[in-house]
Design brief:
Blueprint: E1 6-7, E2 22-26, H1 36-45, E3 51-55, E4 67-70, H2 76-85, E5 89-92, H3 95-98, H4 100-117, E6 123-131, E7 136-140, E8 145-152, E9 155-159, H5 169-176, E10 195-199, E11 203-207, E12 213-217, E13 222-230, H6 232-251, H7 265-278, E14 291-295, E15 303-305
Parallel strand pairs: 4-14
Antiparallel strand pairs: 1-2, 2-11, 3-4, 3-5, 5-6, 6-13, 7-12, 8-11, 8-13, 9-10, 9-12, 14-15
Helix pairs in contact: 1-2, 5-6, 6-7
């Protein structure tokens, strides 16, 4: 492609980067990598151990959690069809960096984004999200810099302020220390300060680091790219939270991460790097999410519940 993947950002927008919700446009659909056929091929080529499959209620409430499943024996084409017809969310994790065809595009996309925003990107990763009508993602926070590039369908992302009333310092510490995936306590009163961003194909949104958010799809199959990346600023910020989380747990300290003098942040960052190598977290919830269903195109919602799970035992999709 001769034109940049990123457009719709003006030089004046640089002052808003990392401080406000930033909307822009992209040309990912023009690559041909997000058609049904291309997505089926991507799933077939992707390691099944790196494929997230989950379900939830339609128009999911913000305070519920997703339910994990498996799709042994199903092809990529069958999984794309199941997402179209059923109550499913299918995601080849790190697809944009693991698959050579997608990585070639992703590298150019992120270079375009860096030039447009003035950000120095240290590392970046991205998953492809394929999800059914009225599926979504619950109220949560990601520790990295995060943005969503929407390719097919319609969806609304609700973004909340990155403040203590919405995401506490201890909650961020638990996520960085892998004690919690990313879910947060939710209160209906939080909606008063939420920004609802409607996304059409070809639109993208980037929000300030540590902003909680949730997503609800429109009445159609959705395809998006969820990007996580680090910058010098985000790495320093997370280093402070990581070290303070360790101090809180091991020494009973009561540190405060927000408001840490910037002059001290490099020392926290270096200490965090050392701690991750010398004394990694002993608990990792990412490895312990129980599978409760199997994908079955003949079942209601393409969900066949395993024994002991499902609506009959209070675990409705």
């Amino acid at each position: 492609m001769t034109q940049p993947f990123v457009h719709g950002l003006e030089p004046a927008d640089r002052a808003r980067v990392g401080r406000e919700i930033l909307r822009f446009n992209h040309r990912l659909a023009e690559t041909g990598l997000f058609t049904d056929e291309a997505l089926a091929r991507l799933i077939d080529e992707h390691p099944r151990s790196e494929l997230t499959i989950c379900t939830m209620k339609e128009n999911p409430p913000p305070d519920e959690t997703w339910i994990a499943g498996e799709a042994d024996g199903l092809s990529g084409a069958e999984l794309v069809e199941a997402a179209r017809r059923g109550a499913l969310w299918v995601s080849p994790r790190s697809a944009m960096t693991r698959n050579p065809r997608y990585k070639a595009v992703f590298d150019v996309v992120m270079a375009d984004f860096a030039r447009a925003t003035g950000l120095k990107i240290l590392t970046a990763d991205a998953a492809v999200l394929i999800s059914g009508a009225r599926m979504g993602i619950f109220f949560h926070v990601d520790p990295a810099e995060t943005m969503l590039w929407h390719v097919r369908g319609t969806k609304t992302i609700h973004v909340y302020p990155p403040k203590e009333d919405y995401v506490t310092e201890q909650a961020l510490e638990a996520i960085l220390l892998k004690e919690n995936l990313s879910d947060l306590p939710y209160r209906a009163a939080m909606e008063a300060d939420a920004a609802a961003v409607d996304l059409e194909p070809g639109e993208a949104v980037f929000w300030p680091q540590h902003s909680p958010h949730r997503v609800v799809n429109g009445p159609n199959l959705n395809v998006s790219v969820s990007v996580e990346f680090s910058t010098p600023r985000s790495a320093l910020t997370n280093g402070v939270f990581y070290v303070n989380g360790v101090l809180r747990r091991r020494l009973g300290a009561r540190p405060t991460s927000r408001g840490t003098p910037r002059a001290l942040e490099p020392a926290y960052w270096a200490a965090a790097k050392a701690l991750k190598v010398l004394s990694p977290p002993k608990v990792n919830v990412e490895r312990n999410h129980q599978r409760q269903f199997d994908v079955d195109l003949s079942a209601p919602g393409c969900i066949r519940w395993r024994e002991g799970f499902g609506p009959s035992v209070g675990r409705a999709a």
